[in-house]
Design brief:
Blueprint (H helix, E strand, L loop, with lengths): L32 H6 L8 H8 L10 E3 L7 H7 L5 E3 L17 H8 L4 E6 L4 E7 H10 L5 E7 L13 H6 L1 H4 L3 H4 L10 E5 L4 E5 L6 E16 L3 H11 L19 E5 L4 E4 L4 E17 L6 H13 L11 H17 L6 H20 L15 H14 L6 H40 L14 H21 L5 H20 L13 H13 L12 H13 L7 H19 L1
Parallel strand pairs: 1-2
Antiparallel strand pairs: 2-10, 3-4, 3-5, 5-6, 6-11, 7-11, 8-9, 8-10, 8-11
Helix pairs in contact: 4-5, 9-10, 11-12, 11-13, 11-14, 12-14, 13-14, 14-17, 16-18, 16-19
Length: 587
């Protein structure tokens, strides 16, 4: 079955009538006289082309990430960011990308390698309808002659052709993609896997693809070999996906520009030039305009746990809108079970998950639990037969996902993974109680001893999505710091030391001796005791601003005058206790 990547909008069965198919290849001139009269002189038949050229869009720099080199696109970077923002790589050096080396590689080269008789799916960009009866040879003739309607080829999947020997996706994509990492090899060699990883897009000037979400909420990578593309992108918030679902189910879909249903700043425009690479995250809404003849390589991929919630949201939209199976991600539920099995291996190996991965795993477990209950699994251990129904194949795939890790069935896989996740969450909670919470408590008390300062970046209601994306990245950075560093840095230790010295100074100025509390053994008890002692001391205005040593001298003079409140022995004892606390905190 052919699949679309950058192309077809979600059109469910019964939502509206498709435009009738026209067999252009059967016509001598490629287009009939009546259709010629409907064209404008430039051949830009989509009414939205002129509209998008004049319309203003939001600032792309607020939502997108720009990397100067492919070497920056690492696995650590992907885990930290969660692949939540569209990312542009300006220089493919270090990206691990491979494309044809021929300097003038063109459409005819594609036809020669893949096969000129290969049937292809052609899109009429005027109404996004399919055009029947085309081969790559027909497409080359159209490309060279360029008469009639503006047509587009965006679904030529070539992973099982010789062209795949000259094209390879970026390294980071292959490291993340569950199709590469989680799908069983025994199914791949039989061609029983989602063949969505490598597409060739051949778009003449003036092509326009209306707003859509890639099937199954999958992420996409693009590399412009020739030409230029303009993307109109919008983040997949719950509100926007709801608007999108209503829009694709509306009979007025063709007369409404989807971006107009949202604030102007919600959609940004990005120009992707020749030699640049773009990664569009899962579930991002986007339209595509081609201002000049373009040849693009790209593919869909499953980036893992960090975007599972977005993928499940899109899967729900597709199901409710009754999107035809031919326009949905192949073996979606199978991919989810294989991804769950892959994650089970990671947890058994004690591999740490990021915060976003834990959230995604929780959603994946819930979805797989529902699916496993609805499956009627065969007890036969015979090899999967091609004559079985698609549903039977998915059920067998789910069982294979479980048995490949030594479990009995999909339900067992779901519950065992859920148990491991609970252990992981419990360990994280315990760690936070011991390490993170005391640190926050101390910082709150420190703020009472220092002049107040605004450490929060200014916010803007128009940039709520940007703030949410940034917060996710910051959360992942915090997770990495918790795993790889101790509770406090050297500067934090100095800050704590200054606090303790100020507290000791406040004790020395009181009329009564400091409390003689015993020193607890637990680190949290250390900090709690210190905070309680601090709360009993005078406010900041009463604390001396002079060095501690001068205060000690003044206190000794008070003793000579008979002032109550402790001599040198008590003072040294208090400081000694504080030093012991600081030493244990460092350890």
């Amino acid at each position: 079955k052919k699949r679309k990547m950058d192309g077809d909008k979600m059109r469910g069965r019964g939502l509206r009538e498709r435009a009738p198919r026209v067999d252009y290849a059967a016509l001598d001139d490629g287009i009939d006289d009546d259709e010629k009269e409907e064209e404008d002189e430039d051949g830009k038949v989509s009414k939205w082309v002129e509209y998008v050229e004049k319309r203003s869009f939001g600032d792309a720099s607020l939502l997108l990430q720009y990397l100067t080199s492919g070497a920056e696109l690492t696995l650590e970077w992907a885990r930290r960011t969660g692949l939540k923002r569209p990312t542009v790589v300006k220089d493919s050096k270090g990206l691990g990308l491979m494309v044809p080396r021929k300097a003038d590689f063109n459409v005819r080269d594609v036809a020669k390698i893949v096969g000129e008789n290969t049937p292809i799916e052609v899109i009429n960009t005027a109404d996004q309808s399919e055009v029947a009866g085309w081969s790559l040879a027909d497409w080359c003739n159209y490309w060279d002659g360029r008469r009639g309607k503006t047509l587009n080829v965006i679904s030529l999947e070539f992973s099982r052709t010789k062209l795949s020997e000259q094209v390879r996706s970026p390294t980071i994509i292959r490291q993340l993609d569950w199709i590469d990492n989680a799908w069983p090899e025994q199914l791949r060699v039989r061609g029983e896997y989602p063949q969505t990883q490598y597409y060739c897009l051949m778009s003449p000037k003036g092509c326009y693809t209306d707003f859509h979400v890639d099937f199954g909420g999958t992420a996409v990578w693009y590399h412009v070999l020739r030409g230029r593309k303009i993307f109109y992108l919008s983040a997949p918030t719950a509100e926007r996906l709801t608007l999108y679902e209503k829009w694709i189910c509306s009979r007025d879909q063709d007369s409404v520009f989807f971006a107009d249903l949202m604030p102007d700043s919600a959609t940004v425009a990005l120009t992707l030039n020749q030699g640049q690479t773009l990664i569009i995250p899962s579930a991002w809404l986007h339209a595509v305009y081609t201002p000049e003849d373009s040849l693009v390589f790209g593919g869909n991929f499953l980036p893992g746990l960090t975007t599972i919630t977005d993928q499940l949201a899109v899967h729900g939209v597709e199901s409710r809108a009754r999107v035809a199976n031919q326009f949905r991600f192949p073996f979606f539920t199978s991919a989810m079970f294989f991804g769950l099995s892959h994650t089970y291996r990671r947890l058994v190996a004690s591999e740490k998950l990021t915060k976003l991965e834990k959230q995604g795993l929780s959603a994946l477990i819930d979805a797989c639990r529902v699916w496993s209950k609805s499956m009627v699994l065969s007890t036969s251990k015979e090899r999967l037969d091609s004559s079985r129904s698609f549903r039977q194949k998915c059920e067998e795939h789910a069982r294979l996902a479980a048995t490949s890790v030594g479990l009995t069935d999909p339900s067992d896989l779901v519950e065992k993974t859920a148990a491991l996740l609970q252990i992981e969450l419990a360990a994280t909670t315990t760690s936070q109680k011991v390490q993170v919470k005391p640190q926050v408590t101390l910082k709150l008390k420190l703020s009472q001893l220092k002049p107040s300062r605004d450490i929060t970046s200014p916010t803007n209601e128009d940039h709520e999505v940007t703030q949410e994306l940034t917060q996710n990245e910051n959360d992942e950075e915090d997770d990495q710091q918790d795993e790889n560093s101790s509770i406090s840095s050297r500067s934090d230790a100095e800050e704590v030391k200054n606090l303790k010295l100020k507290i000791s100074t406040a004790w020395l100025e009181q009329a009564e001796p400091p409390p003689q509390a015993s020193i607890p053994t637990h680190q949290e008890a250390h900090l709690t005791s210190s905070v309680k002692q601090e709360e009993q001391q005078p406010t900041k205005e009463k604390l001396p601003s002079k060095p501690t040593s001068s205060c000690i001298v003044d206190q000794s003079k008070k003793k000579k005058r008979g002032a109550p409140g402790g001599g040198g022995g008590n003072c040294n004892s208090a400081i000694g206790r504080l030093k012991n606390k600081l030493a244990k905190m460092k350890r």
